[in-house]
Amino acid sequence: MRRAARLAAIGLALSATACTEHLAAPGLCPTYCPSDSLAVRDTILRAAISRDTAYGRPYGYVNAASAPYLLADTVPGVRGSHPIFRTPPIGTRTLIGSDTTTGAVIGVDSLYLFLTIPQRDTATHDLAVALYELPHDIDSTTTFAALTAPFSAPPVRAVNVDTLLAQPGHKDPASGDSIIVDSTSTRITLALRLDSADAPYSTADSGTLAFGVRVSAAANAHVEFASSELSALGPRVNWYVKYDSLGIVAHKLIPVSLTGGRGFDGFVFDPPPPPLNGTLVVGSVPAARSVLRVTLPRAIRDSATIVRATLELIPAALPQGLAADSFDLVAQAVLADFGAKSPLDALHVDTTRIYIAPTDTVRVEVTNILRFWVSDTLIATTLVLRQAPEGADLAEIRFYPSSDPVRRPLLRVTYTPHFPFGRQ
Amino acid sequence: MTPARLVTLLACALVAAGTARAQDSQFGIVGLGTPGRWESGHARTGAGAFAAFDPASTVTETALAEIGSLSASVAEGATFRHLEGPGLSSWLRSTRYPLFAVGGPVSSGLFVGGGYSTYLDRSFEAVTRDSVVLRDAMEHFTDAIKSDGGVSDLRLAAAARLGSRVTLGVGLHLLAGSTRMTATRSFDDSTVYFTVQQAGPVRYAGLGVSGSVLLAVTPTVSLAGFARRDGHLSAYVADTLVTRSDLPATVGGALRWTPVANARLAGSVMWRSWSRTGPNAFDTFNWTAGLELGRAAPVRVGVRGGQLPFGATGSAPTEWGVAAGTGRVLANGRGFLDIGVERLARDGGGLRERLWTIVLGLTLRP
Question: The domain B3-311+339-364: what is its CATH number?
Fold first, then answer.
């Protein structure tokens, strides 16, 4: 009996050693391989894209007043762009102590204006920033031409960023201007010290300030300042005000920012963006998008597996601007097709880079999107082309639409038909 | 049979059936699969020579007449397989439970049995490298075709003793099973070309009948003859019939000689018309011979040879093997444990397979 038990134990132990499967073997083909294999087909779908159109002019998906950056450009012969902003009022009275007693603001001792540059264009050298006083009635309808006179006046302050950066501590001891360098990122913040002559406190305006910024450089100047839409990095002011504290002139710091819809910031630029002209427009400000409807053949959508899919677009006009204007062109699926207001699907996105250079064809790999469409045949097969991020670039690109029989958008699809399971 | 015993046996059958398969072979890839052996652990340790006279094996129905009482048997095989061919060498391993059988007498001279055995095994994974020109560039890729599953033979059999010398048996065979097939292509340039993986369950169905006769020529010599006819094997994908393959007919015979009480000799031959199943298929002739010494703790040795049904080079691959094993009575005769080892060599078309299989068989008489 003990011997039998031993035998059983040995047998079980030996069997247990082989309990894990390993059946993968290099195929000896074609002699001892399955007769069928996955086939790969590559096809160009010339008529798959239809009902394509562009949206976003004159009111774009992102406009100058809602853009994440305040674009400052001085590119002679190409364009000029000036950030403008208006700070919210600080009021005519301020709290004196810890209770509710207030005293009248009687003037400003000085103030610091902070402008953040999230990322510098390394091609822009000898960058100078000039601050101009603007009328307080600027808003999102203000045009470049309407501010010609203020920008023709002498600037309130002009600083050379490169010179300031070269100073010890990045600070000009004479003017009090400085640059705060963020050692953990590429971000720098200009801190311009203005006195009561540069930015006088006006009781009638409750301390509202309005400024415009013009940049210049050794060659083409291009800077993006953070706007109030970009976290808390937008323009902000630290007022050092003088106020009446029960008959005594006292000083106080009042910080003011534009976040939360207080005040206004945006930019004006020239020339204005051309209108939509039937082409597929993507980018610029106001930000334009193009919507493309795609009809996949049933054989592909129902039973094939997409290996690679490329959207091929032929530019109707070359992208204009500086090298720094290069931007990401995003092809994005939609959650539902509501035309211009189609909600975008954040999970299925394909991207390519558009460079400011001559190009004959722009190719966007849209494999993610097509695989998503094939996985659920009830999903709207609509693509939206947009710039990323929108409102951060004045460059745009225009493609020929499907109404152009020769240069229409194409879809090139590499796919595998359904494997013939069940055959020998 | 008491209800408790019946439930116990059925539970054993269900548990074992969940993982039922036979040993695999690369030769089966080009055909319907690798045929199962229909042999219990007891018979397998003697290279199958005693299978035609073994009630736990499913080669013949007449062997049921040798069951003294209700019994159930299960077999397990753990296989280490070395594969060798032009440019390839690989060790593979698998564990299978290829057979479960239950049977017993229902009245004087009448015996019934049931169970399953592997009819075809279709478990394999073939990995290949190749390239294709896509968009004017050569793209290299790796293909993997994987199949996991097989076709089981669910048998209902009956045997009747006609006098003291002759026993007749008939069987009905329901062929059922499925495989989960997966085809994967992975491009080397995975940043541009996505990996493709398609999977599809394939369901199989078929029917067969069999008959056998056992003749006690003398008190020490028995002859068995058996024949089987299987119809078609239908393959369904998503309930759509995709292929319908003819299945082979089987005829065979076996001889057992017991010259002394503690020694038994046996041999068998079997012919199957696999060539009718499709291309790359050949009729097969297989033989076995074996010796068993002892009763309470018998020692068995056996040898087998023959062909495999599927090959791709104009002739059937060959198979040759030896097996040895022993057994022990357990629990005062209520159980019997068999353990053995089998060495197989398969050759054909430049491909060589060498297998070591550890065989385990357990028979219970509740």
Answer: 2.40.160.40
